[in-house]
User: Fold S9 family peptidase from Dyella kyungheensis.
Amino acid sequence: MTTKTSLWLTLALSLTLSGMTHAANTITPTAKDPNLWLETIDGPKQLDWVKQQNAETVKTYADNAEFKQLDARLLEVLDSNARIPMVSKIGDHFYNFWRDKEHPKGLWRRTTLDEYRKDTPTWETVIDLDALSASEKENWVWHGADCLKPAYQRCLVALSRGGADASVMREFDLTSKQFVKDGFDLPEAKSVMNWKDTDHVYVATDFGPGSMTKSSYPRIVKEWKRGTPLTSATVVYEAKDDDMSVSAVRDNTPGFERDFVFLQIAFYDSQTFVRGKDGKLTKIDVPDDANVDAHREWLLIEPRSDWNVGGKTYKSGSLLAAKFDDYMAGKREITVLFTPSDTTALDAYSWTRHHLILNVMDNVVNRLEVLTPGPGEWTRAPLGGAPALSTIAAGGVDDDSSDAYFLTVTGFLQPTTLYYGVLNQGEGQAIKHSPSFFDASKFDVSQHFATSKDGTRVPYFEIAPKNLKADGSNPTLQYGYGGFEVSLQPAYSGSVGRAWLEKGGVYVIANIRGGGEYGPRWHKAALKADRLRAYEDFAAVSQDLIARKITSPQHLGAMGGSNGGLLMGNMLTLYPQFYGAIVSQVALLDMQRYTHLSAGASWMAEYGDPDKPQEWAWIKTFSPYYNARAGQKYPPVLFTTSTRDDRVGPVHARKMTAKLESLGYNTSFYENIEGGHGAAADNKQAAFMSALGYTYLWDHVK
Assistant:
């Protein structure tokens, strides 16, 4: 399924979230920061500090029978062979990447549709990552494969050492199930390599000094011919140092082959060019903050700001369609496929051969529409239904040749069901059901709205025992993210059920500004100088829970990761009075130096540039590391991170822990040596990290 992020923005975002070579950062001293020494990621002194912190945290929270039982039960969820093996179609087969107890690193495997529809399909192993890791003496983590259509014989496989975003890329043959000797091969780097044809690829990588932008991403994309050294690859496009990244890709849809160059100027600004056979680039004429996506004869456009063109104004967050060739020729005959309202936003879209499936959120709950191109207006019809307060999503199986689709329905208390159907051929049939990992009959789901400081209505979901007493004594876990236009929607989690709900806890998802729950406007409302709005929203949800006597500060815990970890840092320093404990995972925390740490420079469109005094003036208001000070009533806090996190990096959590400890606060820390930004390289590590976070909160807010 294609999300509302376009094909090329997806490539850029994957690049943004992709590898940094794993080395210590260059340290630029700042005044009176005694913790700069912790920025050397792999130094022996620094790792000794990490090991000591880890040992103390394990001894306090993980070295007991209750923790080990929870750890085992969460691993059982992750390793369960009854989980739905989600697949994608490549050629005539359906592929799945699978981890379980017997295959902790995982199998890339395939089957047929007829087999897949069975309760216990027969799978053919394509790559055994455990065997590969053992033979090469590497801890490989799967980062995916891109296969060349229409033959689908050759793939570009990405492998990560220990879970870091940086990948090694190798050519692989699906027929022989072997890596291609002397095939296309890239060493570890943050690279984007895409097929042009059998003997050519587009490659953006670290070509050496001067080939990376100031954001530390590829500045140059080249065309590389099979059998020649990478040094002989020809330049396709060179970005500026101040741009974020560049990449190129060919759409190999038969009859609609087109080459595109994608320039990511900043996180939300980009330009897409069509590359002619002569190498000439022609820009697709849309605003820089609009997303574009080409599919066969169609061009889809998503403006992120109101757009005036052809004498008409199209609303931010809309989805527009035009004939590709006509648009490139200068015509501006545009059809509106979706217009947002005060409560609706486009969540995703996906093509089948003849139709377009839209996934629309209305107050963070999904509905699906099927649009069919035709003369003038496209026709519309609903697709499927879902229980209240659940998530329904659909995506085309093969947009080149079929109108088949997969559809999933999931909810906080409803294990995922997978349907398979063909548009205009009756209702889809349920073919897979996720198992139940806890007794959902004991709980209710409800949606509520809190009023933020500026009067904004903020939605949140609450999952609570049916016999809940509103006496302020209920252990409650509030989770949030609030950034990068990411939406938090209803979804089943066996881990949440076993670790929190079964023990009598209340679980809350806060849909705060900065996310995408109401489209670009909801995201933009908490950008840069307005960042505090996200934290005010989260605090408003906490206040509402307390006012409704669902819980009270001593029984309310908060958790979030990455940008949500930054959210947690600000809840700690700005709103400590509302929480009994906080868990901050793989977080940004030192916002004065974040642009100099790991991939931080690429996020200035979200937070701002702290090296500019006028922007630091407001960035410092949401920099937890800067704002932490003595004499406050901070709740206990746990920071978790990973040495191999080359996206945010472990530096933030290390320094924040060290500063808080020096100020005398109750602080805990755990750094997984592997795992990347997900903080876990396999299911066993993931179960441990989850169990640690839940145990920490439960110990402090019960």
Remarks:
- The two ends are 41 Å apart (CA to CA).
